[in-house]
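Sequence dictates fold. Next comes a concrete instance:
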Amino acid sequence: MTRLTPVLLAIVSLGLAGCGPNEPATKNTLAPTSEIPTKASATSLTIIGTNDLHGHIEMLPLFGGYLNIVRSHPERAVLLLDGGDMFQGTLASNLREGAPIVAAYNLLGYDAATIGNHEFDFGPVGPAATASLPGQDPRGAIKARAAQARFPFLSSNIFDDATGAAVSWPNVQPAVMHEVGGIKVGIVGVSTFETPNVILPANFIGLSMEPLAARISEHAGDLRQAGAQAVVVVAHAGGDCKDFSNPKDLATCKTNEIMEVAAALPMGSVDVIVAGHTHQAMAHEVNGIAIIESFSYGEAFGRVDMAVAADGMLSIDSIFPPRALCSEGEGPTCAPGEYEGSEVLEDAEVAALAKKAAGVAEDIRAQDLGIVLPDGILSSRNLASPLGDLFTDLMLAARPDAGVAITNGGGLRADLPAGALNYGGLFEALPFDNRFALVRIKGRVLRALFSANLERDNGILSVSGLRVKARCKSGELFVSMTRANGKTVRDEEVITIVTSDFLASGGDGLIGSEGLEALETKLDDGALMRDAMAEQFRKRGGELRSADFFDSAHPRIDYVGERPVVCK
């Protein structure tokens, strides 16, 4: 969330007055019952799943058009679920800490959503990303969004250390029983086990994670006993498959968290999982469970159809490949075509809300940064990228008292678009409200930090001020570091690095973990990193191309093979 002047705060408050809190729905319960399921009024259940919208409210009017078609069949019950990371990532959403997204989800009629790691990003209510004043709640913003929602936020495996139980905030609970079309569906929420390592640690203080499969199994059993005819999990944990032609064929699927969770569940305990987090896709069956995940940013949705049997129980009928909203083109040229024989038209009510949210953000988005990118700048989470190199160069320019700059690949969320760069383009590439941190660290610890990052399957580090070379020798990964002048960094040499407060405070499980301790860490309470980079762009001006600073043949972090690097 960008910091706002009093004038801009007034504009935002007026422009989104219609996005205020709403009373939570009362249709979800988990009351045990001994009743035998009555015959459903619907003959089938369609589960629509979305995930990782990250604030892209502009996609929701068209998605609403698809929903209107799906819901137009009276014999079909429809369950609409979200796999988390709903509202962090765009100016239109972040200026109100996700309120426009929840307002749109209310209009779309979501039945439940799980809590993603990025739901914690806003910290307390207001401009601060972390609680720094007495009485500030480090989770005030997420609680405000849950209170606003007419659907429950679910997570059964985020525990409150003080109570020893799953978090129980207003309209936040582990699981619910939901009735739709006369069908009783139990819904359980879980969040990725890595949540504490991929958010600002200060916003997770006092909380801890429990294993996903154990919590799902426990609540699924309770839901079945309470009369659930089907059990569905909304999980901010995901997979990665490439071929969707045969749901039973897992040959193109990487073994990821949600597949391991599904494999660990008792057979028949869960019917469907709506997944998320990895920004990849699934439309597959694992251990008898249908798993759907639909990329990210609202570009697609997933679908599972279930048939109602004579005894009232449900079974999987069809697992559909992810459905892209646009059959041709994208953005302004999007052509959705038809769905189920009907023309897809935007939902007018959701479109009006999205237009209002975008209008409030437009003045900030349009701020010119004085630089032109003829070809754009490409990003990558897991590979060395031009954007990673550029951002670390800008960090070092903004904090010249440091000798090295480091940032994490998970913080690079979009390419910088070709053409004149404005603040909106920079914001979407770096939407997190991180601030700088200066960390003093010994050379041997910095080498170990790069080694640890290369040996993991998470966001790659980007660096400025050093060349890093990693090679396997005798079954171990050896890392060397040299400066621009060719001098090797010595083990006991003390280096000052500029990085984000996220990495400096233990994000990604690197700095501060065993063997990676810093000598000193100073958090900067000045400008956001994003705003400091904007100022560096303005100072530079003119044209900028990737070739000016990025050489794919000689990357700043040079290693052989693929990550995670495994030396044999």
